[in-house]
Amino acid sequence: MSTPFPAWMLPTESQVTQWYEKPTRSLPQRELERAQFEHAFEPVLDAIRGGAWISRALREYPIELDQGRFTNWVNGDPERKKAYRDAVTTGLDLAVSRVMDPDTPIPLDPIAGRLEFDKIRWWAAAHDRARFADLKQLAGTGADGEHVVKIVHALARSPLDDETGTTLPAPRPAIEHDADG
User: Fold this and answer.
1) Coil, strand, or helix at residue 149?
2) Residues linked to residue 142 through DSSP beta bridges, in sequence order
3) pLDDT in tens, 117-168
4) Angle, CA of 139, 143 and 147, to the nearest 5°
5) Is residue 46 included in any domain, yes or no?
6) Segments forming the whole domain that contains residue 62
């Protein structure tokens, strides 16, 4: 079977294996990265407690850190994960209280104010569904009696990241069953 491409356009076997090889980091590089994460953990948590998103907190940190690997490192230890979730909850409460405070200055541009409000509302719904998401309860009866299904609706539109202008991923809706169901 012939290919529609000339032979000089097709990659060689060494090029193909080079494309699919996973780049590995040496042990000293991984140890350095772990030490950087440990050093950055508390300052990043302080920034998150102050209402910053993790992307902004890592961007403002003096050392460049990969957000995905940092998040994986945080989630790798239950104590770090709990501390991170507590920091997010504190920052979330602060951000929501700023929005709800009548003394907060209102932006002159109503579109910017609405965007900021929607961003914080989305963040709140994504991180604490029990308190801030739109809940609908459907009661149904089955053979075992009555059970309740809670459907958590996340916001349909996702906000823009204020620094980069890119659209953030919308939180996924979740269906939760109560203890009886």
Assistant:
1) strand
2) 145
3) 788 778 777 777 777 766 555 555 555 555 555 544 444 344 444 455 444 4
4) 25
5) yes
6) 26-104
